[in-house]
From TrEMBL:
Originating species: Flagellimonas ochracea
Protein name per UniProt: Peptidase M14
Cited InterPro entries: Peptidase_M14
Highest taxon of the lineage: Bacteria
PROSITE patterns, sorted: PEPTIDASE_M14 (PS52035)
CDD domains noted in UniProt: M14-like
Biological process per Gene Ontology, one example term: proteolysis
Annotated GO MF terms: metallocarboxypeptidase activity; zinc ion binding
Domain Peptidase M14: start-end pairs: 8-265
Annotated family: Belongs to the peptidase M14 family.
């Protein structure tokens, strides 16, 4: 059994992860690895690529294309740490695969904790125009490296459930379509099979908490664009694990997913998985609030009977850390929705708990029927 704690990069934790953090804590420990400067971001931050292994299976991975999506970056650091220590699995991966890893494609967005780059452009909607230096750097790496597989690494919001149930989509995947008909091309089929391998493993750790992302085709998206090039491309979405807003547990699960998919590629066991089972993975549903206050009319008497308040956290960068600021997202009957935390105002104990939280109490007091 793999001891994850042995490989975790403990110096980089939390939600706010920047290139400065990597330079200070992680990069100095990469002696002997091939590290390239691929170019500069809009704000002249260096974008780096790390090569590991010498095998025939070429795998391109990039993370933090969206600057406020850092969980997979942390998992990438953990994976590199794992690949630095000899073990049978590590040795087989490096003998059979060559990994080209871009740990942070959007360092400017990471600095300001924004989805977009410094020009306000979503890099994942720039696959056709290639208007941004970061987009051109990724495309150049793709064309030069000529990967056999691509891993497109992201975070997703806390509002997603894994299907129509009350379990959060802690990890979600997508085998992007390569045309508007969403045909299962050979490349897309391979991506589906690799996702099924990871899903099988994850079900033993987080049963019912793996989701499937919407596969609507958009050729401006990088994953769709690379799938169009007949390179099996997988979208990873790191989501919410209960009480894990720093995404440290999700980080661990993504690390295990990396190891699983690499093992399958090394062993060439891809064909063991039935493509048709891909669609059995439940599609993500937008059905969670960070806090769901039920029967809020018991506290705010200006509301109608049986009125609930759904609250989502806004992630705010303050003094080098992320704060989670509650904001009202819905005021209505929310019986069909779930909450990562539920406050039932018909319950005296929950009302006392709410009364002790001035910020939440003020929000409920200000809520208006929508």
């Amino acid at each position: 059994m793999i001891d994850y704690i042995q490989h975790k990069e403990h110096s980089v934790q939390g939600r706010y992860v920047t290139m400065a953090h990597l330079r200070e804590h992680w990069l100095p420990n990469l002696n002997g690895l091939a590290i390239d400067c691929l170019g500069q971001s809009v704000n002249s931050n260096s974008i780096l690529g790390v090569t590991m292994g010498s095998g025939a299976n070429r795998i391109l991975m990039w993370s933090q294309m969206h600057g406020n999506e850092s969980t997979t970056t942390k998992a990438v650091l953990d994976l590199v740490n794992f690949l630095k220590i000899s073990s049978p699995l590590r040795d087989s991966i490096l003998e059979q695969c060559t990994l080209y890893i871009i740990p942070m494609l959007n360092p400017d967005g990471a600095d300001t904790y924004t989805r977009q780059n410094a020009n306000g452009i979503d890099l994942n909607r720039d696959a056709k125009e290639l208007s941004q230096p970061e987009s051109r750097i990724l495309r150049s790496a793709f064309e030069k490296f000529q990967p056999h597989y691509c891993f497109n690494l992201h975070d997703q919001r806390t509002l997603f459930a894994a299907g129509q149930n009350k379990k959060s989509a802690t990890v979600s995947f997508l085998a992007p379509a390569s045309n508007s008909e969403r045909e299962i091309t050979p490349a897309r089929g391979t991506a589906m099979q690799l996702i099924l391998a990871m899903n099988r493993m994850l079900q033993s750790k987080i049963p019912g908490q793996v989701g499937r992302y919407d596969d609507a085709f958009n050729d401006n998206c990088v994953g769709d664009a690379f799938q169009m090039q007949e390179v099996p491309t997988i979208l990873f979405e790191a989501g919410h694990y209960p009480n894990d807003y720093m995404r440290e547990k999700t980080r661990e699960l993504i690390f295990y997913a990396f190891l699983e998919v690499l093992q399958i590629i090394v062993k060439q066991n891809i064909e063991l998985f039935d493509i048709n089972e891909y669609f059995d993975i439940p599609e993500n549903e937008k059905s969670f609030y960070d806090i769901l206050i039920r029967n809020a009319n018991r506290v705010n008497h200006n509301l109608d009977d049986v009125t609930d308040v759904g609250i989502q956290f806004k992630e705010v960068l303050e003094n080098g850390a992320i704060s989670f600021v509650p904001e009202i997202a819905a005021v209505e009957n929310l019986d069909a929705f779930f909450g990562h935390r539920i406050i039932e105002c018909s319950n005296a104990k929950d009302r006392e708990s709410l009364a002790a939280n001035k910020d939440l109490l003020d929000l409920v007091a200000s809520a208006e029927k929508k």
